[in-house]
Prior knowledge:
The chain is of the alpha+beta class. It contains 1 helix and 7 strands. The model has no long low-confidence stretch (mean pLDDT about 85).
Amino acid sequence: xxxxxxxxxxxxxxxNTVSEVSAILQPGAPVSAKGGLSVSSVPxxxxxxxxxxxxxxxxxxLDDVSAGSHIITFKLEGHTDYSSTTQVNTGAISTxxxxxxxxxxxxxxxxxxPIMVCGALAIIGLLTIRKQK
Length: 133
């Protein structure tokens, strides 16, 4: 019977009689609902998180992941984070690959505009003072 430990016994059966066998079945070890997960990234070396828990650096393979839906997140400095949901099935290995994009660096605004404005105001001020004299 599924979910129970096997039971065996020896009994004596005689002709023209009924033999009765009783057994108390013991639950078997729970069936492991585990699968595997193989993750990789380009470039390699990203921090990998499984359901927001750090699990290692890509590439890596885990053999003991609970079956079900999981969120995989890759984080690498200078690159945009990547997240994906994957389904891990009992006895199978799920694969997640990520191509990490370089992060867009915000352009720094030049400090020359304020300097030019201050310079122009200074020149206008000097010209105004000269004309008043």
